[in-house]
């Protein structure tokens, strides 16, 4: 009853329950790329709700500031820095910022991706192919190498890539992007092997179609939305928080014996591809 008249009580108590109840990532420090919007923002929020100190990043200062303000106003421990993942100096600043602010790094979530073109894989311009592989694959690979000394200092840690259902079965119009997401499935396997004995786990999440700006072409127009939904047994698109919970699980001790794996989060879509 009280909450109906004082909505801020509801907000406060839900934040308190996050902080008091969900502490599975307490004491952990997480870095999430491209985390001012969409799935990345949902992941940053969820890791922080689960107790981690989180460093948010994306290419634009004002977006970083907005996301940091929003999450701090929810009582979460976050800070932010600009990071274009294709720039080595930005990546280094991101990792150093997290380490100096919170005393180390335990978790990397590599979420940034681009898709500058549509069409069959062999119709992709060389420049678009290079851009897709530079951001979606090479930056994830470089960040993984660069975060290792920080994870080793903590005696272990977790790296999670964000692939896509299209990495398993390429979407016709997302040819090159799909292949870049397939590469992340391989990177997950390859990177996990050498790191398992150091207690550094490498996993991957492959979302189906998630209602974000990135996937606007698949859901903004009613006809496109209906076509997309017809391929999803659950009959709806995913929301970003439904991806974030799985990422948080993979980063946590609940997944302490899971490495080299990809979890598909597609509402059953993989069975209809
Ligand atoms: N939305 C979906 O249906 C869907 C499905 C499967 C996988 N994914 C993957 O999920 C991830 C997040 O996508 P999203 O749907 O939240 O959309 P989004 O547009 O919010 O996320 C992509 C983000 O990457 C950022 N980015 C692009 N280039 C960057 C760079 N050089 N440096 C830093 N950031 C950069 C963009 O600014 C953007 O914020 C991506 O890896 C995407 O491929 C999305």
Automatic annotation (TrEMBL):
Keywords, ordered alphabetically: Oxidoreductase
Family per record: Belongs to the short-chain dehydrogenases/reductases (SDR) family.
Keyword Oxidoreductase in record: yes
InterPro entries from the UniProt entry: NAD(P)-bd_dom_sf, Sc_DH/Rdtase_CS, SDR_fam
GO molecular function terms listed in the Swiss-Prot or TrEMBL record: carbonyl reductase (NADPH) activity
Pfam families noted in UniProt: adh_short_C2 (PF13561)
Full protein name: Dehydrogenase/reductase SDR family member 4
Organism: Gryllus longicercus
Cited PROSITE patterns: ADH_SHORT
């Amino acid at each position: 009853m009280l909450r109906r008249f004082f909505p801020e009580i509801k907000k406060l108590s839900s934040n308190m329950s996050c902080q008091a109840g969900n502490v599975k990532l307490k004491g952990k420090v997480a870095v999430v790329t491209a985390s001012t919007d969409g799935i990345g923002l949902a992941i940053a929020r969820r890791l922080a709700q689960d107790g981690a100190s989180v460093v948010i990043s994306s290419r634009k200062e004002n977006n970083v500031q907005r996301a940091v303000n929003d999450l701090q106003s929810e009582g979460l421990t976050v800070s932010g820095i600009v990071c274009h993942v294709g720039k080595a100096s930005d990546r280094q600043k991101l990792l150093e910022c997290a380490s100096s602010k919170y005393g180390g790094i335990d978790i990397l979530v590599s979420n940034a991706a681009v898709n500058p073109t549509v069409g069959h894989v062999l119709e992709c311009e060389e420049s678009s192919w290079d851009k897709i592989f530079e951001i979606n694959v090479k930056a994830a690979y470089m960040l993984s190498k660069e975060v290792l000394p920080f994870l080793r200092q903590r005696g272990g840690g977790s790296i999670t890539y964000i692939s896509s259902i299209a990495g398993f079965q390429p979407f016709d119009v997302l040819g090159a992007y799909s292949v870049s997401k397939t590469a992340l499935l391989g990177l997950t396997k390859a990177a996990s092997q050498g790191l398992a004995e150091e207690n550094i786990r490498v996993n991957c999440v492959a979302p189906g179609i998630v209602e974000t700006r990135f996937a606007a072409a698949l859901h903004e127009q009613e006809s496109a939305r209906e076509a997309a939904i017809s391929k999803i047994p659950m009959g709806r698109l995913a929301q970003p928080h439904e991806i974030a919970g799985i990422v948080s699980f993979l980063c946590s001790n609940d997944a302490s014996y899971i490495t080299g794996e990809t979890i598909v989060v597609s509402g059953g879509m993989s069975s209809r591809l």
